[in-house]
Specification:
310 residues, mainly alpha, 0% strand
């Protein structure tokens, strides 16, 4: 199907077909602008995510870890930073390769559309002016014909009038007929001019339909291809991320619990000798029972010994 076969109307000065076409192109322009804004926001999101990933990787601690787990941790941080770089590259691609291309495409289409729109509007205005002039000329022509017929009829009916008055009626009828003939000439000329305006407008409208269809087909194909490229950017990042994390998985496969335990022991061991038990040391000697007698009992025994000696 073609635009040039489907956007006409019987109304001589009608513009519904043209208005439907121009609205479609303006809607397409709005869609293209929305897509451009989408790419801008998507690129910004990729950039922010990239910065966050690299920031997380940079600020990550865990420097006290050792062994194969330390290698796994370093690999995870390193690949996280690499993922950030991939997303930053994706942001730059969206901005430089796609967003700018969409903006340039939208501007190029706008110029062609505006040029075609101006041409059609001029032909429409010319046709409307010619149509209005034709109506005016026709109205004047009809009025002048009626006036001429009436004047001629009046002159024919009043032949009994005096010669002077009859001559006046005949002069008036002749003048009215001349005016009718002049109006007829102007009316015919206006019809010719109107048809020329119609032919011009029709030619411009045909060109408009073809140009607008070319623009719309080009826009749809361009949008589809660009959207495809956007998905390719996302897919590329996903593939790169999977390769990066595959490297992390490869490092994790060598993370050995026993090996890390052994490494820690080798680096930080203090020896295998344990402390000896602490033994009780009696203040009074080797008689444990003596050391646990109450102090008042000891004083009583001491007095008894002193009395016996006396």
């Amino acid at each position: 199907m073609a635009f040039v076969e489907n956007f006409w109307e019987t109304d001589f000065t009608g513009v519904q077909g043209y208005e439907a076409l121009i609205k479609r192109l303006k809607d397409g322009k709005r869609m293209t602008a929305d897509f451009e804004e989408f790419l801008k926001q998507r690129a910004k999101a990729e950039e922010n995510y990239a910065k966050e990933l690299m920031k997380i990787s940079k600020n990550a601690q865990g420097m006290c870890e050792i062994g194969t787990l330390r290698a796994s941790w370093d690999a995870l941080k390193s690949e996280t930073e690499a993922c950030g770089r991939e997303h930053m590259a994706a942001s730059q691609r969206l901005t430089n390769e796609l967003e700018k291309v969409v903006r340039d495409f939208r501007e190029k289409q706008r110029e062609v559309r505006k040029r075609t729109e101006d041409t059609v509007k001029k032909s429409q205005a010319f046709k409307r002016t010619a149509f209005s002039h034709e109506i005016k000329c026709k109205t004047d022509y009809v009025a002048k014909c009626k006036a001429a017929d009436k004047a001629e009829e009046n002159a024919e009916k009043n032949t009994q009038l005096p010669p002077k008055k009859l001559e006046d009626l005949r002069v008036k009828a002749k003048r009215a007929r001349q005016q009718a003939e002049q109006a007829d000439s102007l009316y015919q000329e206006s019809v010719i001019n109107l048809d020329e305006a119609r032919v011009l407008w029709e030619r411009e409208m045909e060109n408009c339909c073809k140009t607008f269809q070319d623009l719309e087909e080009e826009r749809i194909a361009f949008m589809r291809n660009t959207m495809w490229k956007v998905t390719n950017v996302g897919s590329s990042v996903a593939v790169q991320e999977d390769e990066l994390f595959e490297h992390v998985r490869a490092v994790l496969e060598h993370c050995d619990v026993s090996q890390d335990i052994e490494l820690f022991i080798q680096q930080k061991r203090t020896g295998d000798g344990r402390p000896t038990p602490v033994e009780y040391e009696n203040f009074y000697g080797n008689n444990p029972a003596e050391s646990i007698r109450p102090s008042y009992q000891k004083e009583k025994d001491l007095k008894q010994q002193q009395q016996q000696q006396q």
